[in-house]
Amino acid sequence: QVQLVESGGGLVQAGGSLRLSCAASQSIFSINVMGWYRQAPGKQRELVATITSDGTTNYASSMKGRFTISTDNAKNTVYLQMNSLKPEDTAVYYCNAFRIRLGHQYSYWGQGTQVTVSS
C-alpha cells in the first residue's frame, strides 16, 4: 500500500505559478510511474504529467511548456511546477502512483488538492 499526500494548491491569478507536492509513504524508487491528474467540475479526470522511475517524463499537450514534473527521491516526493496558469487549469489535482509487482498492477491515489485560477 502506498499512501500519497498532496499539498500546495490554492488560489492564484491567471499568469501566476504554483508548485504542488506529493509525498509518498514509501520510496518512489519502488514505484514504476508517478503522475499528476486533474479533474474539473463536470469533467472526467485527465492526465497532466507522469514521470517514470528512470526519469522519463510525459505531459498532456495543453500543459507542455507550462508545467514541469520532477522528483526528490531523498524526500519520496513528486512535484508539479505550474507556470502561466490559466482559468481553465482550475481543478482538483490528484497524485497517482502506479506500480507493477509480480505481474499485478497497483494504482494509488492521493486525496487531491484544489487549484483555482482567477481571471
Detailed description of the structure:
Helices cover 0% and strands 56% of the residues. The protein has no helices and eleven strands. Strand 9 (91-101) and strand 10 form a beta hairpin. Strands 2, 4, 5, 6, 9, 10 and 11 form a seven-stranded mixed β-sheet that branches. It starts with a strand and ends with a strand.
Low-confidence region ranges: none
The helical percent reads under 10%
What count of helical segments does DSSP give?
0
Round the Cα radius of gyration to an integer and report it.
14 Å
Query: What is the end-to-end distance?
Result: 40 Å
What is the β-strand count?
11
**Average of per-residue pLDDT values:** 96
Largest pleated sheet: 7 strands, mixed
- Spell out the helices and strands N to C: EEEEEEEEEEE
- Overall 3D geometry? globular
Write the layout of secondary structure elements.
Blueprint: E1 4-7, E2 10-13, E3 18-24, E4 33-39, E5 46-52, E6 57-59, E7 67-72, E8 77-82, E9 91-101, E10 104-109, E11 113-118
Parallel strand pairs: 2-11
Antiparallel strand pairs: 1-3, 3-8, 4-5, 4-9, 5-6, 7-8, 9-10, 9-11
In a nutshell, what does this entry contain?
The protein is 0% helix and 56% strand. It has strands at 4-7, 10-13, 18-24, 33-39, 46-52, 57-59, 67-72, 77-82, 91-101, 104-109, 113-118. The strands form two sheets. Strands 2, 4, 5, 6, 9, 10 and 11 form a seven-stranded mixed sheet that branches. A four-stranded antiparallel sheet has the order 1-3-8-7, with no helix packed on it.
